[in-house]
Design goal:
Blueprint lengths: L7 E7 L3 E8 L4 E8 L6 H18 L7 E8 L3 E2 L4 E5 L5 E4 L1 H9 L3 E5 H12 L8 E6 L3 E7 L2 E2 L30 H5 L1 H13 L18 H9 L3 H25 L3 E5 L6 H15 L2 H6 L1 E4 L6 H12 L2 H7 L1
Helix pairs in contact: 1-2, 3-10, 5-6, 5-7, 6-7, 7-8
The structure holds zinc ion (ZN).
């Protein structure tokens, strides 16, 4: 008989600057964790070697036998061919294309490996370990430098026809809006991400408007989204204007998702969610204007409580999801 306390998953979260690996139990508790720099510029094979080393070390320090690990989940910052385990494209990893991570890592680590987009993995993490535990229809939206999402429908990750569903960051919000990294204009990400917030403030300061932020940075180009939220908390007029505008765009994007999918729960994660205290009320107020009322009545919008660990926990959830022993009971 399966003993839940003796089953573990190994999560690997590959980000643009750092890679985290963690051994996680079925309750979502991290047993051991390692963090290494990504250094994508040194190439794919070099990185894979370091990832496998880090994963083996994490496993060793957990004092667990390898056969206690039911799977290895990997979250990557880009679209994925889930069946083949191939990262299709990653602008944050030196623009790598068609990297067969699953095969490369599986043959070195000798455990079953599953690859998924990091936002999809995070949605699974919330479903298995977080606020989404008792919820069957939820959307995890990560708002940081960019915007991405993972969609859980009827308890299962919705991957779409080719595995790249949930690209909410590239929904058009303003057909004449600013240019997005993807080449389109007025994407949700170009208007409401952390990068967009910082860009708005830089433009405001360059046009001669005043803000307390000029005391915190030496040059305008150093302005980040967190400066804007901090200034807004202090009552800075310029920052408050930007936050108000951003919240309208956030509500437009989140509202579109609620109207389309009628979820029970929206979980907001990523760096901008650290400003939940500032953005929650204006976003909720705006959602009331924009969302079809039966859909609004049905949904709760909350901030993720998993912090920086959402990446490895999501990746670990992927390992559990694919384990025969856990799949039916967890998802
Ligand atoms: Zn776009």
């Amino acid at each position: 008989m399966l003993n839940e306390s003796s089953a573990y998953s190994l999560g690997i979260d590959i980000g643009g600057t750092k890679i985290s690996t963690a051994v996680v139990n079925i309750k979502g508790e991290i047993i051991t964790k390692t963090r290494i720099p990504t250094n994508a510029e040194k190439g794919v094979s070099e990185m894979v070697k370091r990832v496998v080393n880090a994963a083996e070390k994490t496993l060793q320090s957990s004092n667990l036998e390898k056969n206690k690990i039911c799977g290895v989940g990997i979250g990557v910052p880009g679209p994925v061919d889930y069946e083949k385990g191939v990262l299709i494209f990653a602008p944050n990893l030196s623009g790598w294309r068609n990297v067969p991570f699953k095969k490369m890592i599986q043959q070195r680590i000798n455990l079953p490996v599953y690859l998924e987009n990091d936002a999809n993995a995070a949605a699974l993490g919330e479903k298995l370990f977080g606020s989404g535990r008792d919820v069957n229809n939820l959307v995890y939206i990560t708002i940081s430098t960019g915007i991405g999402a993972g969609v859980i429908i009827n308890g299962k990750l919705y991957q779409g026809s080719t595995g790249t569903a949930g690209e909410v960051g590239h929904m058009t919000i303003d057909i004449n809006g600013p240019l997005c990294e993807c080449g389109n204009r007025g994407c949700f990400e170009a208007l409401a991400s952390g990068n967009a917030v910082a860009r708005e403030m830089r433009e405001m300061l360059s046009s001669g408007k005043s803000s307390v932020i000029t005391k915190w940075v030496e040059e305008i180009k150093e302005v980040k989204a967190e400066h804007v939220f901090k200034a807004a908390r202090e009552g800075d007029v310029s920052a408050k204007k930007i936050v108000e505008k951003t919240c309208r765009y956030l509500a437009a994007g989140i509202g579109n998702v609620i109207n389309l999918l009628n979820p029970e729960l929206i979980i907001i994660g990523g760096g901008v969610s650290n400003a939940w205290d500032v953005i929650r009320n204006p976003v909720m107020k705006e959602l009331k204007k924009r969302v079809f009322s039966p859909n609004l009545d049905a949904v709760k919008v909350v901030c993720s409580h998993m912090g920086d660990d959402i990446g490895v926990l999501g990746a670990a959830a992927l390992g559990f999801m694919n384990s025969k022993n856990f799949h039916d009971r967890c998802f």
